[in-house]
Design goal:
The protein is an alpha+beta fold. A hairpin with a 2-residue loop joins strand 14 and strand 15. Strands 3, 7, 11, 12, 13, 14, 15 and 16 form an eight-stranded mixed β-sheet that branches. A four-stranded antiparallel β-sheet has the order 2-1-6-5. The chain has a two-stranded parallel sheet with strand order 4-10. It is built from 13 helices and 16 strands. The N terminus is likely disordered. Helix content is 36%, strand content 26%. The termini are far apart. It binds 2-acetamido-2-deoxy-beta-D-glucopyranose. This is ubiquitinyl hydrolase 1. One of its GO terms (cellular component) is cytosol. One of its GO terms (biological process) is protein deubiquitination.
Length: 369
């Protein structure tokens, strides 16, 4: 009797091991059973020769509904080729697609895509800047505007507000700005008399954050944001109020504070991982970054923005950089419906949340709720 029991236990164990091996193979090929399904698949992107930096950004952009919506009403050549590729990346009937239509549209704007490893963030900036230029004509630089007599008249009294005015100058030709764009505000307050200089606004399409130096082994995203926004002291700035009181030009230390002046619909956060060593070489800080699926930026907004704007965001995509400081590979974890997918060129498979949260994040895309 006991022998039979032993035998059956043996076979049972063998079956289980076999099942586990088959399950492991199935996992590698298709992802876990519960994550499988046609709806949760998207096509991969063909690598045209070191173009993973392009592919990773396109997969991330394809996961952002408000960007697709915004592009839908746009008819300029680059916008059309971008929306074509982004829509195809959400079509589960497509297999692998090529980003060539888009790279050619960029080349017509005289961008050279040489087949060297490039930075994904740089590509993201180039893409957005070129899109905007195509829609609004070349953007006027600050000096163009300052030389314009009309602007001169308007801004001469409040030089500090010049940047705000640039925003409103380009506004008429652009009914709704790109959802990836927001405004950063920086304010300076005299440490001596508390006089505040006019707040400056700067248009942003991403925020670059160093890993928190206070953290021992891992930093949290919120901590990095807090460090970045926390006030710093800037010396030797002329204070109009102190000067008036003293009767001579007086320089003071000012407290500089950064805030989000207008939160973008889609917040792109870049984690700076490159660290220069004293011997002049660059290393990559691979320490862990803890980031949330839901991010509330309420405490990082200006007081006027806090009252008007929504502050809760959901994570849509994470671009990961694998490898060293000057080479490596980009891949993207992206949302498709409520499912997370891992995408790396033509490789696409479903993953669990914890796999996303454990990746070495380089760019994080959050969409406003
Ligand atoms: C890497 O980042 C961690 C925080 O996440 C920090 O403590 C550490 O000093 C950094 N290392 C380098 C070489 O900068």
């Amino acid at each position: 009797m006991s022998g039979v029991l032993q035998d059956s236990t043996f076979w049972w164990t063998l079956c289980l091991t076999g099942a586990a091996a088959i399950a492991a193979t199935a996992y590698v090929l298709f992802g876990p059973e519960s994550l499988r399904g046609r709806d949760s698949r998207v096509p991969g992107l063909i690598n045209l020769g070191n173009t993973c930096f392009i592919n990773s950004i396109l997969q991330a952009m394809a996961s952002i509904p408000s960007l697709l919506q915004w592009l839908d009403s746009k008819e300029t050549p680059l916008a059309v080729s971008l929306k074509n590729v982004l829509h195809a990346l959400n079509d589960n009937n497509e297999v692998n697609i090529s980003p060539e239509e888009l790279t050619q549209a960029l080349m017509r704007h005289r961008w050279l895509i040489d087949h060297q490893q490039q930075d994904a963030l740089e590509f993201y900036h180039v893409l957005l800047t070129t899109l905007e230029e195509e829609m609004t004509g070349p953007t006027l630089s600050l000096s163009d505007l300052i030389n314009d007599p009309q602007v001169e008249a308007q801004s001469s009294s409040t030089k500090g507000m010049a940047l705000t005015k640039i925003g409103s100058f380009s506004a008429p030709s652009q009914p709704k700005s790109c959802p990836l764009q927001g405004l950063m505000s920086s304010s300076l307050v005299c440490c001596d008399c508390q006089h505040a200089l006019p707040t400056r606004y700067e248009s942003i399409d991403s925020i670059s954050l160093p890993l928190s130096q206070r953290a021992a082994s891992s930093s949290s995203l919120v901590e990095c944001l807090r460090d970045y926004m926390s006030s710093e002291i800037v010396d030797d700035i002329e204070c109009p109020s102190c000067s008036k009181r003293a009767g001579v030009k007086t320089k003071r230390s000012f407290r500089k504070k950064l805030r989000i002046g207008r939160p973008p619909e889609v917040l792109c956060l870049n984690i700076i991982r490159s660290v220069w060593r004293s011997d002049g070489t660059m290393v990559k800080n691979r320490s862990r970054l803890v980031f949330p699926l839901t991010l509330d930026i309420n405490s990082f907004l200006t007081t006027t923005a806090t009252r008007q704007d929504k502050t809760k965001y959901q994570l849509r995509a994470v671009v990961e950089h694998l490898g060293g400081p000057s080479s490596g590979h980009y891949c993207t974890y992206r949302q498709c419906g409520r499912q997370w997918l891992y995408t790396s060129d033509t490789t696409v498979y479903p993953v669990y949340n914890h796999e996303v949260m454990n990746c070495e994040a380089y760019l994080l895309f959050y969409q406003m709720d």
